[in-house]
Amino acid sequence: MWRSAFLYLSTNAPVQHLATKSRVARKISSRFIAGDTLPEAVAATKALNSKGLTVELDFLGESVTDREQAEAARDTYLAMLDGISAGQADSQVSLKPSQMGQALSDELCYDNIEQVVLKAEGLGNFVWVDIEESPTIDRTIALFKKLRARHSNVGIALQSYLHRTRKDAQEVISMGGTIRLVKGAYQEPPEVAFPDKKDVDRNFKLLTEMMLSSGPFQAIGTHDEKMIQNAIDYAQAHNISKERFEFQMLYGVRRDLQERLASDGYNLRLYVPYGDRWYRYFMRRLAERPANVIFILGSVVREAMPIR
Ligand code: FDA
């Protein structure tokens, strides 16, 4: 119920308007967001790199409904790739089809993303395609397959909460594709997604094992220690070396676990978002963990009643 309420609010325009004007909300969201600008994001990346963590940068923004915004987002990603290279930061990039104009046309979206992938190819970099709400997935998978048939420097996120994901994962793997497995962050009906967390987790384990047994490099995106331990145990039992996969986590979430895995010699990549369109991303982070809201309420009260 808590999760549904926050996911509902994440798409509510009046609440978004209020929250994005709130100084306190912005300050608190900075736990999960690396700054407003590319130089801030590159600086955050380099700080993480110095701790042995790699990064995938995300420019916040989604559900774009006009062509200019989609092209501006594409240009931001092109500049981001230059900024990563110029700053000698160890970072890939991650983007959302809905930010690249998917709601306007598949061709526009494909062209925008392919330009980013081509630029990354020239720089020896890699592009992740995020996965969004279930009605967009057929088109996102088709887009990914077309991209992957032409470029090897692109991977796709898939969600273990969807019934369909096993089939999608098999298809991506059979193309030699790289997957970032996540549980899924949106509100979905039971016809398409497992309503019960234990089924989401069971599917996550099954998909992890399928991915680790496949040839291509794979990514396990979770903060759930049980899922992580399952991947580690499976890899050890099947002699799958640490170089064949990486764990991925979100900036600001379970920093203790991030550092522990990195110091145990596992590849650890952080998804680092930046930009001023942080509201929806931030609300999804609140939906994932009620304790975040208690932390926020505490900060609001502290700000309202400063201790002298
Ligand atoms: P789960 O939600 O079961 O949480 C396990 C534990 O992790 C919690 O008990 C808590 O300790 C900690 N935790 C989780 N979330 C937290 C938070 N917000 N704050 C503090 N602690 C938290 N989704 C999607 O639909 N499309 C996508 O493209 C992506 N991309 C993506 C990239 C990367 C690198 C990650 C890690 C995640 C995504 N996600 C995503 C989000 C994903 O679907 C999922 O919502 C979150 O990762 C939370 O799920 P967990 O696997 O961490 O497990």
Please write out the topology.
Elements: H1 2-10, H2 13-21, H3 23-29, H4 38-49, E1 54-59, H5 67-86, E2 91-95, H6 106-122, E3 127-129, H7 137-150, E4 154-159, H8 165-174, E5 178-182, H9 197-212, E6 218-221, H10 225-237, E7 245-250, H11 255-263, E8 268-274, H12 279-288, H13 290-304
Parallel strand pairs: 1-2, 1-8, 2-3, 3-4, 4-5, 5-6, 6-7, 7-8
The chain binds dihydroflavine-adenine dinucleotide (FDA).
The site of dihydroflavine-adenine dinucleotide has 24 residues, from strand 4, strand 5, strand 7 and helix 12.
Can you tell me about this structure?
The chain contains 13 helices and eight strands. It has 308 residues and is of the alpha/beta class. It has two domains: 1-33 and 275-302, no CATH class; 38-274, TIM Barrel. It has an eight-stranded parallel barrel with strand order 1-2-3-4-5-6-7-8, surrounded by seven helices. Strand 3, helix 7 and strand 4 form a beta-alpha-beta unit. Helix 1 (2-10) packs antiparallel against helix 12 (279-288) and helix 8 runs parallel beside helix 9 (197-212). Bound molecules: dihydroflavine-adenine dinucleotide. Dihydroflavine-adenine dinucleotide is lined by residues 130-131, 157, 159, 180, 182-186, 221-224, 248-250, 253-254, 271, 285, 288-289, 292.
In quaternary terms, these chains amount to single chain
> What is the count of structural domains?
2
The CATH class assignment of the largest domain is Alpha Beta
Give the strand order, joined by hyphens, for the main sheet.
Answer: 1-2-3-4-5-6-7-8
Question: How would you sum up the major sheet?
Answer: 8 strands, parallel, barrel
Name given to the CATH architecture of the largest domain: Alpha-Beta Barrel
Amount of helix: 40-55%
Which regions contain 5 or more consecutive residues with pLDDT less than 50? none
User: Measured on Cα atoms, how large is the radius of gyration?
Assistant: 19 Å
Q: Give the class from helix and strand content and strand pairing.
A: alpha/beta
Let me know the number of strands.
8
Briefly note the CATH topology name of the largest domain: TIM Barrel
Q: Roughly how many Å apart are the termini?
A: 38 Å
* Count, helices: 13
